[in-house]
Amino acid sequence: MTEPRRLRGHKATATCCIASRDRSGVVATAGEDGCICLFDMRCKDAQHIAEVAQEPISSLSFNPGNEDIMYVSCGNEVKCFDLHNMASAWTPFKSYTYNKEEINQISCNSKAAFLASTDDGGDVKIIDIRQHCLYKTLRAGHSSICSSVQFIPWRSWEVITGGLDSKLVMWDFSKGRPVKIMDFGLPDTKNSSNGAQCLNPAFVHAIAVPDVDMLDKSDKICVVARGDGIVDVINIESELAVIRSKTSAKAQKGSSSTSKDGVPAAGTGILDENARKRLHLDYSVGGHAAAVSCVSFSLFGEKGKLIISGGNDKSVKVWDCSKYDGAVQTGGNSDVLRLNINLSKKVNWLCTTPTDSENLVVCDTTKVVKAYSVS
Fold first, then answer.
1. CA dist., res. 162 & res. 173, Å (int)
2. Which residue among 92, 168, 237, 369 is least enclosed by CB atoms within 10 Å?
3. Backbone φ, ψ for residue 176 (5° rounding)
4. How far is CA 234 from the centre of its chain?
5. DSSP 8-state assignment for residue 275
6. DSSP result, 99-141
7. Residues 74-118: pLDDT tens digits?
8. What is the rounded distance in angstroms from the CA atom of residue 27 to the CA atom of residue 351?
9. Exposed / middle / buried, residue 212 (Cβ in 10 Å: 0-12, 13-18, 19+)
10. What is d(CA 193, CA 205) in angstroms, rounded to the nearest whole number?
């Protein structure tokens, strides 16, 4: 692995980054200095550096329908910027303050109709970004900090969230209630090596869901970055099929599982007959030795074929997603790890670009962002 390119512009630790899909090689980074840096990887220096907040920026998101629109979260606020006219680009044209607690992540759905924002109170706000109003509040799914959120592109009204209560929750946000809850804090006898993984709790620090144009390579999965150092690959449709089959079976018996408010109870637990559908990437196959902080799918090469994870063990792992089906069928995870990159600092966030070189951008705990070339 050659030395990475260093992207300078921040005055404090870089916290997050996103890559443009429409403009090859364009990357936006944000930091604890409240600044956003825009880089064109064809150029030597940052194209634009702007201070947009007086506090650390926690998350960034482009509008998928118009990447001139960028959403930025800081504190309990989401700011909206129009980058089309750079002269006035860094004055927000709209802001949302629906979250009561500090926001951890924001994400837009593929149709550019909704934005989700998760906060320290465990709430998820679904914002209608066309009508500029709050559409729904999702609560009672998480009992602690809600750290991450992703829409499911092939399911128009569903979103997935992860939290520091070790839970992964699939929601129907049109109804405002969970469809399924997976608790990684429960004992997992299906993977006996779990106990020796590391002592940290299985908090969900980040999740990744493939875009629709990646599905031929990645299948309909969700990748989960866990605090115990494990990267879980979960087949979303298989998980939901279990819920449907259980619901159907109960209906045939003339009974149904309901919660105290009369709503069908969400399926819970990690120990069900569908556990074999999950791929468990842990230390035994070269995985992380400490908490996994972020995960992403590859935009370079065959889109969605690779999964990239970064962790507190100062490493970035590149996993071959195409091995997923074979690994599940054989019960093993061999040959799934494609590349290991050792760093000098812990990883805060990473993203990939649809270019042949300098296509893996890593924000570590320094103010200098690194760009690696992965093939």
1. 15
2. 237
3. 75, 30
4. 13
5. G
6. -SS-EEEEEE-TTSSEEEEEETTS-EEEEETTTTEEEEEE-SS
7. 999 999 999 987 777 789 999 999 999 999 999 999 999 999 999
8. 9
9. exposed
10. 21
